[in-house]
Amino acid sequence: MRVLVIDPDPARAALVAEGLAGDDQPEVRQTPRYDAAEVAAFAPDVIVVACDSADRDTLESLREAGETNPRPVVMFADRSEPGLAEQAIRAGVAAYVVDGLAPGRVRPVLEVAMTRFALMQQLRGDLAKAKANLESRKVVDRAKGLLMKERGLDEDAAYKLLRKLAMDKGRPIGAVAADLLAFAGVLRGDAS
Question: What's the pLDDT at 191?
């Protein structure tokens, strides 16, 4: 396991490293501030941010990084202000611990955060797939409506025709339906 510790205080960063010591000693690297190039070069499995208090610049950097290269982030803050925990979670922080940095707590908190992160990534993937399926279904329904109108078919016959076209072309039914709608738009003069 590769762990990047972001902390300007070497003594506090050493507490994190001490908490990770054990038989399966992970590779730990410490840096004083978030640096996207360093994160990309080191490619950590988890990022640990230890700080006096979460600052908005760090949270914004974590949010931006999470959009392109998501990874579990654990934040240990000595103190917190109202609303910062919510901002940290929205920025992609999987665990936000206030006034709780002790070597004995580091490994369990990281394990929970990594598990929570994996579950959230799975949920995000499932949501994206469900949205794509819903959009495909809408396109198929529009294409069925077009076939029903233009060819005088009932709904079942229109669907069977779309399915046959998809199987003949070896393409998903949603893609065939989208092509059919696009071609119909060209014939009607909708596209230039």
Answer: 56
Q: What is the mean pLDDT of the chain?
A: 91
Cα separation, 96 vs 113, in Å, equals 9
Structure tokens belonging to residue 20: 């990770």
96 and 135 both lie in a single domain: no
Determine the structural domain holding residue 140 and report its residue range: 130-188
Single-letter code of the amino acid located at 166: A
Contacts of 107 (CB under 8 A, 6+ apart): 19, 20, 22
Q: Where are the strands (E) in the chain, listed by range?
A: 2-6, 27-31, 46-51, 73-77, 95-98
Contact 11, 5 (CB under 8 A): no
Q: Using CA atoms, how far apart are residues 72 and 114, in angstroms rounded to an integer?
A: 6
Strands 46-51 and 27-31: unpaired
